[in-house]
Design a protein that fits this description.
Number of strands: 6
CATH topology: Rossmann fold
Shape: globular
Radius of gyration: 15 Å
CATH architecture: 3-Layer(aba) Sandwich
Order of helices and strands: EHEHEHEHEHEH
Number of domains: 1
CATH superfamily: Response regulator
Helix content: 25-40%
Largest sheet: 6 strands, parallel
Length: 142
Amino acid sequence: MPDILIATDADWVVDELKAAVEAPDTTVRAVRRGDAVGPAVARQTPDLVVLDLQIGNMGGMATCIHLHLEADAGRLPAVPVLMLLDRRPDVFLARRSGADGFVLKPLDPIRLRTAVRAVLAGDTYEDPTGAPRDVSPSAAVG
């Protein structure tokens, strides 16, 4: 039974995630602050943490880095992280923070479900709508 913890201060994001992934065998829990993720993980280890990049307190990037540092120090279990991004330039932040995957908003249920399944299976997921395009000098001259 997959247990998913989402951190966002936007109710619509929780609703979108639940609509995309909720099933009889899936649990979706939510916290509204980034600094609440660590204690929630310590209380009950989720199979996946979904972080909204724009959380009002301790944003998604800081929360992801915190989870990795605490896991490396042995204070928290290691958990995979899927990050929800607001814009294409945020891809750098998701990669830099060590997220296992990312999805760009607006959230599409099919992409979101695909990303959750991939990360739960131990793979990575990079939203194709957010991947930087290959712009080589020769292509730009065209």
